[in-house]
């Protein structure tokens, strides 16, 4: 039987796959945690569509970039089903409008829905047309897929994370790129060094970058070749940076740049 991925690249403790996560992930066995940034709901795609974006700006600036991936709605239940391969946290980013939909899907699964956390965006784009308030935050939902009581490293900390959308080191190569410092802080709170974290909607690889810099192992899966290549470049830089800083890089090998095709 042929492998379900088009490419597989191993970089330090990170393994990156090009292909469909719903076909690939069932072949990979168990992971400690899922930390993923799935596509938005259809309602958000409509809001960012070409028709909705037309003539919104009156200041001469360029319109926001149109989303170039399909909405999550049709595959949400199948993504939640992947939680059966997880022994810890299942974390998925979403819009505020999507929280209830994710909660419903998770509550129908063996996982235990915990709550929605908030990522506050101090530099979020304003509502250019002035017809209402601009969104200033995004959510991520948390569910426990492990045995016994849920466990994390942050005690009674509130589930609120504040991080700019556009730090100086943002690559800008992906339409919904998350700040790596945000993902670093989430990994610090929800995972432990050496844990295996899977991001089945890898995009430009930010979760894997954070994993490399915090001593976690990671699996990333992405369908678009251009984003896959960008993720490979970013993860290589992160693994090298971790090595140069003397940080622990799980399963680091001298031939970490060798691609397994």
Structural commentary:
By secondary structure, the protein is α/β, with parallel strands linked by helices. Strand 1 (7-11) and strand 2 form a beta hairpin. The chain has a single domain, classed as Vaccinia Virus protein VP39 (Rossmann fold). It is 26% helix and 20% strand. The longest helix is centred in the last third of the chain and has 20 residues, at 225-244. The model is unreliable at 50-62 and 251-261 (pLDDT under 50).
What tags apply to this protein structure?
261 residues; alpha/beta; Rossmann fold; 26% helix; globular; disordered C terminus
CATH topology: the name is Rossmann fold
Q: What name goes with the CATH superfamily?
A: Vaccinia Virus protein VP39
The N- to C-terminal Cα distance equals 16 Å
State the major sheet. Answer: 10 strands, mixed
From the 3D coordinates, which CATH architecture would you assign? 3-Layer(aba) Sandwich
Topology (SSEs and partners):
Layout: E1 7-11, E2 14-18, H1 21-24, E3 33-36, H2 42-47, H3 50-53, H4 76-81, E4 89-94, H5 99-107, E5 112-120, E6 137-144, E7 160-162, H6 180-190, E8 196-199, H7 206-213, E9 217-222, H8 225-244, E10 259-260
Parallel strand pairs: 2-9, 3-4, 3-8, 5-7, 8-9
Antiparallel strand pairs: 1-2, 1-10, 4-6, 5-6
């Amino acid at each position: 039987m042929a492998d379900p991925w088009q490419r597989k690249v191993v970089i330090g403790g990170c393994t990156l796959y090009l292909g469909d996560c719903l076909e690939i992930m069932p072949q990979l066995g168990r992971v400690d945690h899922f930390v993923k940034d799935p596509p938005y709901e259809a309602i958000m795609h409509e809001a960012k569509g070409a028709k909705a974006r037309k003539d919104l700006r009156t200041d001469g600036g360029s319109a926001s970039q149109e989303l170039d991936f399909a909405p999550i709605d049709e595959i949400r239940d199948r993504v939640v089903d992947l939680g059966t391969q997880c022994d810890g946290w299942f974390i998925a980013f979403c819009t505020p409008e999507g929280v209830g939909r994710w909660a419903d899907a998770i509550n129908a699964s063996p996982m235990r829905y915990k709550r929605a956390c908030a990522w506050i965006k101090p530099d979020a784009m304003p509502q250019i047309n002035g017809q209402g308030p601009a969104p200033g935050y995004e959510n991520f939902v948390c569910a426990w897929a492990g045995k016994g009581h849920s466990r994390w490293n942050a005690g009674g900390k509130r589930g609120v994370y504040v991080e700019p959308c556009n730090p100086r080191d943002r690559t800008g190569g992906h339409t919904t790129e998350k700040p790596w410092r945000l993902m670093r802080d989430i990994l610090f709170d929800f995972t432990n060094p050496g844990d295996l974290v899977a991001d089945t909607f890898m995009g430009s690889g930010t979760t894997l970058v954070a994993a490399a810099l915090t001593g976690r192992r990671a699996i990333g899966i992405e369908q678009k070749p251009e984003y896959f290549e960008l993720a490979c470049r970013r993860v290589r830089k992160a693994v090298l940076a971790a090595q140069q800083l003397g940080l622990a890089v799980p399963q680091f090998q001298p031939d970490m740049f060798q691609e397994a095709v």
